[in-house]
Amino acid sequence: MSVERTTIPVLEVMGLRKSFGGGGDRPALDGVDLRVEDSEVVAVLGPSGSGKSTLVRCIDQLESIDGGAMYLDGELLGYEVHGSHIRPLRDVDVQRQRRRMGMVFQQFNLFPHWTVLRNITEAPITVHGVPPAEAKQRAMDLLERVGLADKANAHPRQLSGGQQQRVAIARAVAANPRVLLFDEPTSSLDPELVDEVLQVIKDLAVSGMTMVVVTHEMAFARSVADRCVFMAEGKVIEDRPAQEFFESPRSTRLQTFLTRTA
Ligand code: ADP
Ligand code: MG
C-alpha cells in the first residue's frame, strides 16, 4: 500500500539527537528521522537500550532534546520561531502542544484513588474544558469500546493489569489526540492478558488513529503496523513497510534480531 506523499505528515522527526550526559557515552538518540502520515501505524522495534523509549518520550516532550527538530501537523514542537530567532517555548505552550498527543506507558499510570470514569474524564474537563456531562458520555462510549463499561465506578486496584491498560488507552483517546504514542504497552502484563490489550490497539488502528507503537510483539507489529522501524544504538537502522521488514530484512542486525525473537 503506497502512502500519498504530498500532504504534511502528522508527525515528522528530523535528525533528532538526545544525550543524557555521562561524559563520552554515546547519545541515546543519534540523528533519528521518522515520518508518520495520517492514519498510519508505525511500530518501533529494537533491542533494549536502543533508544525507543527516549524517542517517544522526546516526541511527547517529556525529555529535552539536544538537536534536530520535531513537527506535529507541520508545527515545530518545543520551540517558537520569530524570523531568524528560535527559542524554547514557555511551559504553557509546551502543554498546549502535548495535549494534541496521547501517551500510553508500560506501567498504566492511572490515578489509584480515582474511579475509572474519573481517570478518563479529569483531563477533558479540567484541561480541555469539555462540559462534565459530555466528558462522561464520551468516557462511557470509550469504555464500551474497550469492553469495560461495567467498570466505570471501579478503582484501578480492582482491575487486572490488562483492564487497567485498556482504561489507560481509553484515557489517552478521550483527549482526541492527533497521534497516540505507546511505549511497550503490554510488557508488564501477564501473558494471558496481552491479547486483550493488543486487540484494543488493533481496533484503534482500524478506526484510523495515527499511532507510534514501541513493542516487542512481533506478530502484532507484522499484522497491524503499516511500517516497522528498527532501532539500534540510537539510530534507525531500517524503516520499511511491515511485510518487507519481516520477509526481507536488509541489515544483518535486523536479520539477527528477527531470528532471535522469532
Ligand atoms: P529502549 O527503550 O530502547 O530500551 P531507552 O530509550 O530507554 O532504550 O534508552 C536508550 C539509552 O539511553 C540507554 O543507553 C539508556 O541507558 C539511556 N537512558 C535512557 N533514559 C535515561 C535517563 N533518564 N538517564 C540516563 N540515561 C538514560
Ligand atoms: Mg524502553
Automatic annotation (TrEMBL):
Q: Name one Pfam family in it.
A: ABC_tran
A Gene Ontology molecular function term of the record: ATP binding
The primary location reported for this protein is membrane
Reading the lineage from the top rank, the first entry is Bacteria
Location within or outside the cell: Cell membrane
Membrane topology is: Peripheral membrane protein
Q: Which UniProt keywords apply?
A: Amino-acid transport, ATP-binding, Cell membrane, Membrane, Nucleotide-binding, Transport
Residue ranges of the ABC transporter domain? 11-258
* PANTHER family attached to this UniProt entry: AMINO ACID IMPORT ATP-BINDING PROTEIN, GLUTAMATE_ASPARTATE IMPORT ATP-BINDING PROTEIN GLTL
Family (UniProt): Belongs to the ABC transporter superfamily.
This one is known as: Amino acid ABC transporter ATP-binding protein
Q: Which organism is it from?
A: Microbacterium wangchenii
